[in-house]
């Protein structure tokens, strides 16, 4: 991870907008020549920022390049509990990330690591370039750090930033409440491994809107313990679509509920709207809706996969499974790059119930070709949907659409 450029980065804390305190990393010993290790200066600046009570702002000045030779822990709790977004000033700075050989252990899950900070705002219109190509062929790939991680950060705002070529996932949101993310761009090549856009876990009340994600993995992954997630006006592609899961790996009991995705676009994605669970898990995924989705040459536009296993050797169905219920797919329109446009592959142990499809029109991206729907172990109500699909338990049925 070589170069990370942050333009307009504001970390803003306090009550009100008057008499705010401005801090500058230069005043804490940062050099910004791209060669000197500025990690200690950034840590000192954060300590001062977190101790301040008068609406402090941390500024990263223009025309500088700050080398951070290791991951930085921006840890709280901080003294100021409320945050006011200060969007009327521009802070321009360059931050250079460490080379991969400086990460000697597989325990660096993030590079810019925010934790236990209430009312944090990261706001900007610039770029972060993680230069992740050096990481993508490394083994194990799980060692590749996220560019930014938010852990236990309630009342979080993240707006306007562009992240390029992340080593691992671009953004992690873990154990957070009341999060607003908008107008960000997360971009990596379609063949870059594990470069998820946003990974969400154990978090609630997230709003993601007006974003563009083109990645090598899930544009958004909604993992266990998450609820009340609203995603609107997202353009996804390339990437693996928007995924609920995977859930239930290694027999875990995991839950996701109250997810709404609307007015979004899947363009050239490997999947569209996906729910994926392992065969031996437990828990549930319920009250999920995908509404008003545009498809442009997308593979697997609608897919429920309860036999998810990206490995050569996979476990057969066990005695338990994640229960999927009350899922709605409505207003899908556009083209599928795969023959199977709708696949509902549910568990034979705990079948899917309450699956609703209505007002969907999916055709092949290849003129003259047919698309079809497949389902297994799913209770489905389908109206005004092409390709047509009706599932009867437990019979496996395939319905073909007209060319």
> Major β-sheet, in short?
16 strands, mixed
Mean pLDDT: 86
Number of strands: 32
Number of spatially distinct domains = 2
Gap from first CA to last CA: 47 Å
Total helical elements = 2
What overall form do the CA principal axes indicate? elongated
CATH architectural type of the largest domain: 3 Solenoid
Key traits:
signal; 2 helices; secreted; single chain; Pectate Lyase C-like; 403 residues; Probable polygalacturonase At3g15720 isoform X1; twelve-stranded mixed β-sheet; 32 strands; cell wall; mainly beta
Q: How would you describe this protein?
A:
The N terminus and C terminus are likely disordered. The longest helix has 13 residues. This protein is mainly β and 403 residues long. Helix content is 4%, strand content 49%. The relative contact order is 0.08. The protein folds into 2 domains: 179 residues, Pectate Lyase C-like; 186 residues, Pectate Lyase C-like. It has 2 helices and 32 strands. The termini are far apart. It has a 16-stranded mixed β-sheet that branches. It has a 12-stranded mixed β-sheet with strand order 7-9-12-15-18-20-22-24-26-28-30-32. InterPro entries: Glyco_hydro_28, Pectin_lyas_fold, Pectin_lyase_fold/virulence. Keywords: Cell wall, Cell wall biogenesis/degradation, Glycosidase, Hydrolase, Secreted, Signal. Belongs to the glycosyl hydrolase 28 family.
